[in-house]
Amino acid sequence: MNRTADGIVAALGVAAGAAAAAAMVKAASSHAAPSSAGSARALQVPRDLGASARRLAGKRKEIDAHIHAARAFNRSSALLAWSALTDSAIEHYRGSFENPGMYAPLIVGTLSLAAGLHGGNDRVGMRHPVRHAIYLAAAGVGIAGTGFHLYNVTKRPGRFSWHNLFYGAPLGAPAALLLSGALGAVAERLRDEPGHDPRLAGMPAGQALALLAAVGMIGTVGEVALLHFRGAFQHRAMYAPVTVPPVAAALLARAALSPARPNWWTRIWLRATAVLGAVGVGFHIRGVARNQGGWRNWSQNVLNGPPLPAPPSFTALATAGLAALRLRETER
Fold first, then answer.
1. 9-41: per-residue pLDDT in tens?
2. By three-state DSSP, how is residue 204 classified?
3. 107, 235, 269, 292 — which has fewest CB within 10 A?
């Protein structure tokens, strides 16, 4: 590996990391937005207005709620795209980009990241055709990548042996790009829905979004469980991402399938999962430092150590779950 190529990978990681940090700050700061914005609008409605004016103000609040949920899902899509982009750049660089198709997730991941950041700041209640097309392409590349990784594992002697699952192409890695596309596409479709009763897939929008986020968390847990099992759970903290997110996903699914009501316990577990994603990056940084040469030998240890971009996937899905939960609690 030459110094120029190492520098390119480093620059890509720094640039993508900065973009992801911006997306995480946006997602975190948006948690209080609906309530504060709603309160401001409520204060702006004079008490002496008639019932029709108050209903109009309430309807406007509902419209803002479903657009806010769409923007939150755009931001979560951006964070997942960053995770898929940087992880693919590192892993496919390690594989010397042997197959030209290994460039596809880098291109589509970059576009999905840009689309997510743009959508996160877009207040328009209408689907953006370019963003929607990018999200569908990201989902398609994620599905195709899963097929390529499955082939990489099964072509080896022993096929679905533990050794091949541990050291072959990671089966769950392309799912991050698939989830990025799915969350973004759903966000764009939500923008086209009416504000008073948005629906997706024949269900109330909040319910559908919550179920999607819960399924995404369970799939991510499966990939983490495999990799941490490969690492023999040598640190007790390695049990956290296979225990906390499943509980959060189960509570989120329960909130989606139950009658709409406040779910403070679910909210606590989702926030814990979001924090876990950020804390996980710190543990993975420590894991890289423990390899021979530490960060002085970063060009080797980043490739062979724990994947730095992986933990934020939990942050992305948890923030999406929180947005879905807020919308779900307004439904009847």
1. 444 444 444 444 444 445 444 444 444 334 333
2. strand
3. 292
Angstrom distance (rounded) from CA 238 to CA 306 = 11
How far apart, in whole angstroms, are the C-alpha atoms of residue 329 and residue 320?
14
Q: What is the pTM of this model?
A: 0.80
* Among 222, 224, 223, 180, CA closest to 317: 180
β-partners of residue 245 are: none
User: Measuring CA to CA, which residue among 279, 301, 281 is closest to residue 292?
Assistant: 301
SS3 199: strand
Contact predicate 187/138, CB 8 Å: no
**How does pLDDT run across 89-116, given as a tens digit for each residue?**
999 998 889 889 999 999 999 999 999 9
In this structure, which amino acid lies at residue 161? S
In one-letter notation, the amino acid at residue 243 is: T
Average model confidence (pLDDT) across the chain:
84
